[in-house]
Amino acid sequence: MQNQEIFKKPVWKAIFSMGIPSLISVLVMIIYNMADMYFIGFLNDYTQVAAVSLIMPVFSIMTAVSMLLGNGGCTLIAQALGAGEKKRARSYMSLCIWTAILLGVIIAGLIIVFSNPLLKFLGTNEEMWQYARNYMLILVVGSPAMLLNYAIACLVRGEGAIKPGLIANFVSTGMNILLDPVLILGVKMGVSGAALATVLSNVIGIVYLIWYKMHHEMILTFNPKPARESVRHLGRVFALGFPNAISNILNGVASTFSNQLLVLYGTSAVAAMAAAGKATMIVGLLQMGLCMGVQPLMAYYYGAGDMRRIKEVVMKLFILTLGIGVVFGAVGMLGSKALVGLFIRDLEVVALGQKIVCIQLLSAPFVGIYYIGQNFMQATGNALMATITSVLRQGVLLIPLLYIMNAIMKMMGIPTAHVMADFISIVVTSVLTVIIYKKVKNQLKQKREA
Questions:
Q1: Which residues, 6 or more positions from 427, have their beta carbon under 8 angstroms from its beta carbon?
Q2: What does the pLDDT look like over 406-450, one tens digit per residue?
Q3: How far is residue 30's CA from residue 269's CA, in Å, rounded to a whole number?
Q4: Which of 352, 281, 287, 242 has the alpha carbon at shortest distance from 56?
Q5: What is the distance, to the nearest Å, from the Cα of residue 171 to the centroid of all Cα atoms in its chain?
Q6: pTM
Q7: Nearest CA to 412 among 351, 342, 356, 348?
Q8: What pLDDT does residue 74 have?
Q9: Among 31, 159, 163, 307, which has the highest number of CB atoms less than 10 A from its own CB?
Q10: 211-247 burial string, b = 16+ CB within 10 Å, else e?
């Protein structure tokens, strides 16, 4: 198929062909994520900003499930195509799409039933309760559409079809930006309008993908029959997608513990951390997006047994992620006041957010190493090691460090804990990547000689 020609280009061209659209997708996603809080900021009510922040762990759960299927399926699809097995790739596609729909319905039902205890666990106080509840319930009703939209955009990368996933992101984000001011400010729905805009924009993204499929030859299929043929492989999909998924889940869990600590310093502290988080996520998401975009390339080369090209991809990704970290980290520190001011109008809260931004960006130049290692492990089938690095960074290290550093440094210990967890994880992931690289190299050599 024409889509697969992208895997056969020279490495630099292949990286840019797959990585740049992924970077653009991430930039679009950043705008998408910022849009809600930006327009809510015009309400001059940081209580609503804080309420949206508290519900982010729920959003993280939905993103995690879509990553579980999207990234896991993407890797298997690319490996199958690298081995010349088109029918198997199609069955993986169908399996992931229908599993996303089913899990979306299950998640929506569970969260609706347990909404009150969940809101309490997330750290919602009386001041934020109704805003947080309204925002959460509208989001979860639309969770099947949200899971499906993101999962398909990831899955089609596995067949080298970068264009439809990228355009779907543009369509969804564009509609979200158009709907946000109308529903939040025009119709005066506040945070409820932000949630509704998110759900509707995801539905529109899916409609575009269905339309694209009807007019182009793709492995993408909505036929449930191939899914039944590959149900036994669902465990492999979960295993390969689990590292990214668990990272998002643990990020949400850590965010909950962080908010529980921040609430002790007042609603303004929660709002400041939320605004700072939006400002600093740009660097990490760009590095993550680049590595995830190129992961199918590594998976394809692994399926084809081409270790030389895998090594070349890893080295060139290191150069690119380091550059992104240095440039955007410096811009974030220098422009911290303006970035935080996009979401918060209260000057005291802005000043607090600036301090948090400058702390959290200290690890920015090097976080790309973590994402390179993790995606290399997944692409070569080492899902367990990739999972260990995810659990280490967001769970084993971060959650205890939040409490330790809060006890030592009070509120500023919370962003400091994130930086410490980053640096330790980068070192551990680097060591594991070198070990696994040597192991995979020997395995492919023995396979060729057999």
A1: none
A2: 999 999 999 999 999 999 999 999 999 999 988 888 887 777 776
A3: 22
A4: 281
A5: 18
A6: 0.69
A7: 356
A8: 83
A9: 159
A10: ebbeeeebbbeeeeebbeebeebbebbbbbbbbbbbb
